[in-house]
Amino acid sequence: MRVLRWHGQKDIRVEEVPEPQVGPGQVKVKVKWCGICGTDIHEYEAGPLLVKVTKPHPLPGSKMAPVIMGHELSGDVTEVGEGVTNINVGDRVVVRPTIPCYNCYYCKRSQYVQCTSLGTIGYIWDGGFAEYMVAPSDTIYKIPDSLSYEVASFVEPLACAVHAVRRAKLFPGATVAVIGTGPIGLLTIEAARTMGAGKVFALETLPARYQVAQKLGVEAVINPLEVDAGKEMAKLTDGLRADFVFECAGPPAAMLSALKVSGRGGTIVEVGQMVEPCQFPFGTLWMHEKTIITSQGYTDEFPAAIAFLADGRVSVAPLITAKIGLDDVIKQGFEALTGEERYNHIKILVSPEL
Ligand SMILES: [Zn+2]
Ligand SMILES: [Zn+2]
């Protein structure tokens, strides 16, 4: 079968490999759609980050490079392994890419995202940029007929957004600001609204990206490079600013914007992956009793994400900027998302059937 494998930094290859064999407790999925994630791009440009190249990951059945990428996938079950009773051949499904050990201190407290040997499909386990993939049955979620495979490939990134809104303990009617309108920022706008937010604002420095946020019905898009984002936010909210700010961009400057646009007693949720250290005026934080929390991945938010997409409360059509075949995944996928036109794209979906 054809697959996309990560071999090294800036070295990914579409190639032929044997179809995977389903083991006990595993399920084989014929992939319909798989989205390219920002994390895939990091692994391509700056890896190995999650991929193992010298020492194998402790998860039994895990893979070192070369490994098949892709973790935002939907498909059909074509085979189930020995002992699998909850999933049947023909089920329409999505796959949760996180594989916890279920044995460590954190897994025993149901904090699977903190599992000390958490494995992620698409990095240490063969993933969804392939005609077929196999995964442990506990990572498989059935999807309703009302949910198309294409839309279902957004369950995984939407689960991140739902997790962030849950971590924030958002209250009904709250004013929300989302910084950064890439895929996770846009899905956070929608998740926050679905989960009870009142007015939702977006902060974005790239004019190319205003339109999609506007299509999703935000009150306003504020560009912190053009205006004082804090003052602008105050003007738009009778001086109150945002009760909750979701920082989904990543650079340290975005965290300073978060501080400015959050109101007194507000909560700032760091969703973006801030790789550089950030200098932060803690005095302001203290004075206005603001709270900073972080959100990384998800635990049990797949059912919520499936429900929100199935009945259209979260709409992803404006986020899809290209649909391509597996053979074109390098040029029209990874290179498009790292080249000059990268900010014209939000989400690129890949299908082995195109
Ligand atoms: Zn992802
Ligand atoms: Zn664990």
Describe the structure.
This protein has 354 residues and is an alpha/beta fold. Helix content is 25%, strand content 25%. It contains eleven helices and 18 strands. The chain has helices spanning 38-46, 105-108, 149-152, 155-168, 183-194, 210-215, 229-236, 252-261, 282-287, 302-310, 329-334, and strands at 2-8, 11-16, 26-35, 67-68, 72-80, 92-95, 98-99, 119-120, 132-136, 140-142, 176-179, 200-203, 221-222, 242-247, 262-270, 291-294, 320-325, 347-351. Strands 3, 5, 6, 9, 10, 17 and 18 form a seven-stranded mixed sheet that branches. It has a six-stranded parallel sheet with strand order 13-12-11-14-15-16, with helices on both faces. A three-stranded antiparallel sheet has the order 2-1-4, with no helix packed on it. α6 links the parallel β12 (200-203) and β13 (221-222). α7 (229-236) packs parallel to α8 (252-261). The protein starts with a strand and ends with a strand. The relative contact order is 0.15. The structure holds zinc ion (2 copies). One zinc ion binds next to α2. One zinc ion binds at residues 100-101, 103-104, 106-107, 115-117.
Largest sheet: 7 strands, mixed
Number of strands: 18
Count the DSSP helices.
Answer: 11
Structural class designation: alpha/beta
| Estimated helix fraction | 10-25%
Provide the list of bound ligands, each named once. zinc ion
N/C terminus separation: 14 Å
Rg from alpha-carbon coordinates: 20 Å
Strand/helix succession: EEEHEEEEHEEEHHEHEHEHEHEHEHEHE
Return the average pLDDT rounded to an integer.
96
